[in-house]
Design brief:
Helix content: under 10%
Number of helices: 2
Strand order of the largest sheet: 3-2-1-28
Shape: globular
Oligomer: single chain
Radius of gyration: 19 Å
């Protein structure tokens, strides 16, 4: 592994004489031993998301059930940004592309906080929870946020299990855009439920979304039922057709390459807690896809994928049960980086 890798684990597996295995771990370049980072981080911190600052490899943010933490020294030390003292469970982070002090934080109960001063103060935005929300067993979570790089005041939030909301004014007001997912669930192959009796559940179970500057106003989203695209700012949606390329269609992550806005990566699996995962790449904004992981057996749900900000050939992935693997040559060859025993429920990965 030529680059430094960070992962976030969310399951606090521990015993009377064993430290918590959740938290932030770092694998330094050209080493084989993962190090659990603890300076400034709680020992029982269940990490849901890690985001790096483009252009500054040593600045990263980690969101967890205990709040938001920031490092400016590559993980050697961390500071609690104290977003909220009410409910500190954080699932998603969004950094503004041109205003470095503007950050959005997505939480439980469809809550989003925003700072415009780098975290010195926070404002709770007037978000809404869609009427179609399904809250069986857990509150509605903001699992991913994305903004249009060409129009950064246009913000979209993927909700679990409630569809999507959007803001066209930088978060000052929000609209429920979930009706189309309910409509699509009327199609027999898109009807699905696990925690409720509502067949719209699978379509409303959004996990990730993204916007590319190659096509402003277009949103790509993944959910339990596959991959979907909207070409009118989330008003209407249609299927990607990923089933023509992959037998695994459960979508957990989708990102554009920071080096080529027409190139997308998608993490696909058989189910939320499945036994198979796969990584696909599209070079044409999702019109066609190729599976690029090989010589690696992904034995659980592929949760997250990351493309290095400085090197387009450096791509790393993490699967739920602790597999971490990557390529330094654009997918020609792959290498695994086994995590310490007991480190599972991996939800975040960043390479610097």
């Amino acid at each position: 592994m030529e680059g430094t890798i960070f992962i976030g684990a969310a399951s606090p597996l521990a015993g009377p004489d064993v430290a918590n295995t959740c938290g932030v771990y770092r694998l330094d370049a050209n080493t084989t031993e993962w190090r659990q980072l603890t300076n400034g981080l709680p020992s029982d911190m269940q990490v849901n998301v890690i985001v790096g600052r483009p252009g500054n490899a040593r600045e990263l943010y980690a969101g967890s059930q205990l709040g938001l933490f920031k490092t400016i020294d590559g993980g050697d030390s961390w500071t609690d940004l104290r977003v909220s003292m009410e409910d500190r469970a954080i699932y998603s982070l969004l950094l503004h592309p041109t205003e470095p002090d503007t950050i959005y934080v997505g939480m439980d109960h469809t809550v989003i906080f925003k700072t415009i001063d780098g975290g010195d103060s926070w404002t709770k935005l007037p978000t809404i929870q869609p009427d179609c929300s399904i809250t069986g067993g857990f509150p509605v979570r903001v699992l991913r946020m994305a903004l249009d790089p060409v129009n950064p005041d246009e913000i979209y939030a993927a909700l679990e299990v409630a569809g999507l909301i959007r803001s066209l004014d930088g978060g000052a007001s929000w609209e429920d855009m979930s009706g189309e997912f309910v409509r699509l669930s009327k199609e027999p192959h898109l009807a699905n439920h696990i925690i409720s009796e509502d067949d719209a559940e699978g379509m409303l179970d959004l996990h990730a979304l993204t916007v590319s500057d190659a096509k402003p106003g277009t949103i790509w989203a993944v959910n339990r039922m596959g991959l979907f695209i909207s070409e009118d700012k989330a008003k209407t949606w249609r299927e990607f057709g990923i089933e023509h390329y992959s037998e695994l269609t459960y979508g957990r992550d989708i990102i554009p390459s920071p080096h080529d806005s027409k190139t997308f990566y998608a993490a696909l699996s058989d189910s939320a807690r499945g036994q198979a995962g796969s990584l696909y790449r599209s070079a044409d904004l999702g019109k066609s896809w190729d599976r690029i992981d090989h010589d690696i057996s992904i034995d659980s749900t592929l949760m997250t994928v990351n493309v290095n900000d400085a090197n387009p050939d450096r791509v790393y992935c993490a699967a739920r049960l602790g597999q971490v693997f990557g390529t330094e040559d654009g997918g020609t060859s792959w290498n695994e980086a086994p995590l310490p025993e007991g480190v599972v429920d991996v939800r975040a990965i960043v390479s610097i």
